[in-house]
Amino acid sequence: MSGNRNNVIGGFARAALFVLCLGVVLLADLLTGDALTRRLGIEPRALNGLDGMLFAPVLHGDLGHYLSNAMPLIVLLGLLFANSNYKPWRSLGIVWLLGGLGTWLIGRPGSIHIGASIVIFGLVAFLIVASLVLRSWRSAVVSMVVLFFYGGIFLGVLPPLLNSSMAENVSWEGHLSGTIAGVIAACRIRRG
Fold it and tell me: Could you tell me how far CA 44 lies from the centroid of its own chain?
């Protein structure tokens, strides 16, 4: 039982450290006049915006944007890293890269997409679908908790035309791409 406790503590410690690093990146971006955001955000269908697949999730527009993503990221990453059956590094990589690629493919032209919400939406979808793939009590409990606390965010995958509460500057394309990437990652945890 102590091994499980160590996995949980270690998972949440990794998640908190990652979110702290995002705060350092935000500070650097603010001090450089948003130079990182302009250079490293996802610019849809522009070759020079393709590197945003790697960097967009660590960039945030302001402190409010960062803070709104911080707690969900700590919780969801903590849950991901607490269970080795989730193949956490591989699954996170799939969510991160496919979510970014999807945003690059379907994002609004002339826009720059940033923020960890690509990963957040992907992790919510992953943790819910993973319980169906793994068929374990532990993943089922995690899935129920995640669905209860974060299931409502799936309204954020709808464009403003279908979701009147969606602000114009919010990347529903990133939310949708992250969600799809999370489902794909969950379907792949049984393989290799």
Answer: 18
